[in-house]
Amino acid sequence: MHARTDAPPETAASWPEDIFAILQRFDVRQVPYVPDAGHSELIERVLGASSMRAVPLTTEEEGVALLAGAWAGGQRGVLLMQSSGVGNCVNMLSLTQIFRFPFLTLVTMRGEWGEFNPWQVPMGSSTAAVFELSGIKVLRASHAEEVREVVEAAAGQAYNACTPTAVLLSQRLIGAKVFTK
Amino acid sequence: MSQANLLERRSVVSHLLAERNDAIVVGGLGASTYDIAAAGDHDRNFYLWGAMGGAVMIGLGMALAQPKLPVVVITGDGEMLMGMGSLATVSLQKPANLTIVVLDNEVYGETGGQASHTASTVDFVGVARSCGISDARAIATMADIGTFASSMQDVSSGPRFASIKIDSANLERVLSSRDGQFTVTRIRGALGYGPI
Hints:
The complex is a heterodimer of chains A (181) and B (196). Chain A is an alpha/beta fold.
């Protein structure tokens, strides 16, 4: 897995830490993920949290099903993935309508804002539309200082109103991945 | 076509669930859900009518949320093939209260009996073991079904996996509720969780 370059100065505020604090406040217990460099700091925090269970997946759709089971068993969760993983979830996203459970996913975007790798562009370009077609509300954060309020709003409507919600964390926020030989 | 040397699915499931106690039971879409319904409706039955490939992961989410309750996933070979990676995910989490049972008739019965991969090459017990689920076995007799049913109640020694070859006879469907909200709300209610 390639790392990204250091975040540019204006994104130096620790937005992953903001997200972690919100997840703790909403009593999120299960955190399924497929790794992405943009989520690496948050994943580290989750792995170190005794109140949370990090669940590495082989494919993102597993996480949707896991969260449905968690909800039936009385726990909240959040799915962490990259935009390319959203397409892997499509049929399983039916569960958000079938069970009307509090689905929240945080998606790090690829295929936009200075992308180097053309293979990321098709799925990155359709990520928001795929969610919307699947009945998932889409919010976006593009700057470090807005991450907290966007994720807070998303968690609020997902967990309080059972409104399935995806937050897209822009590549502009995370920093475009740099490929060097 | 019924085959004499293979187990009959409804007998297997009703035997597995005869003394389920507080267990949560997740049924993969299609015949497995009908089998669970045939064994008797229960407020801890998690019937699936879709989400193919998701049964084991739903069971894992439940098992992690309720570590003191036995959680049993009963699904078919086609459904298990679609979610085979979830065996790797389960193994990493080591949910001691989770049991996975595959009723393997080697065909996609719901869609006309087309051969599945298990008819010729795939060995689920080997797959489960190589994913790291060491308690993985093939069960071929009703006596062993009974022993295994008792072990499902042990929430400290899983995860465990069983592949049971069953005959491929298409039985009359026993239809459970197909209302997902009803099903989940009922399970949550049985566990003491109210509506939002």
